[in-house]
Amino acid sequence: MRHASSTTRLSRPAAPRRALLANMAKNVLRYGRVHTTVVKAKETRRVIEQLIGLGKEGSLHSRRQAYRLLQDRELVKRLFSDIAPQFLDYRGGYTRVLKLAPRSGDGASLALLELTRFPTPIVPPTAKSKARKAPTPEAPKAPATPEAGQEPKEKRKGFFEGLRERFRPKKTTAQS
User: Fold this and answer.
1) Are 46 and 24 in contact (CB under 8 A)?
2) What is the largest distance, in Å, between two alpha-carbon atoms of the chain?
3) pTM above 0.85, yes or no
4) Dihedral of the CA atoms 84, 85, 91, 95 (nearest 10)?
């Protein structure tokens, strides 16, 4: 029976469910929004509302409670200094769930869970983000000129240039 069960189980045991909700709450607090299913968004909303309520309280005990869930000192600091002060005049409703089109693979109903007031998102520097960072524009290099006594280098053919020559139909002369 389902008497007095207050949470949705999300097809997971208790510990993985808590970990899922904590990770989604971290991502919402870090980036301001997250794409997920409607059911997960509604459950995560409950966690985020509690965390922002702790942030508005601002006591040492509430910081410890927030750290117990988030496990990230920088995120707790940001929650108490940047995010929660934006909601001091609110009495709830810190997040919104916007329904999106169903997922094409399995038809699951998707949603966008976001904060109603956006903090500036911080992206922690990682090895992947450094590798994907666009190179800074440099001054254009002058073309190399052949020095005295040296012949200019031949331009190398591209990969497909060699293939075109091999597979190009040979021209035959018309014989009469």
Assistant:
1) no
2) 101
3) no
4) -50
Sequence-ordered list of residues with C-beta below 8 angstroms from that of 74, at least 6 positions apart, any chain: none
Read off the pLDDT of each residue in 4-8 and give the average, rounded to a whole number.
83
For 103-127, the three-class secondary structure string (H helix, E strand, C coil) is CCCCCCCEEEEEECCCCCCCCCCCH
Q: How far is residue 25's CA from residue 70's CA, in Å, rounded to a whole number? A: 8
Residues 12 and 39 sit within 8 Å (Cβ to Cβ): no
Give the Cα-Cα-Cα angle 65, 7, 16 (nearest 5 degrees): 65
For tokens 């929650």, name the residue: 79
In whole numbers, what is the pLDDT of the chain averaged over residues?
Answer: 84
- Tell me the HSE value of 17 on the side-chain side, using a 13 A CA sphere: 12
d(CA 68, CA 83): 18
The domains located in the chain, with CATH, are 14-117 (3.90.1030.10)
Residue 34 CB contacts under 8 Å (≥ 6 apart), including other chains: 24, 27, 28, 41, 44, 112, 113, 114
Q: Residue 72: pLDDT above 70?
A: yes
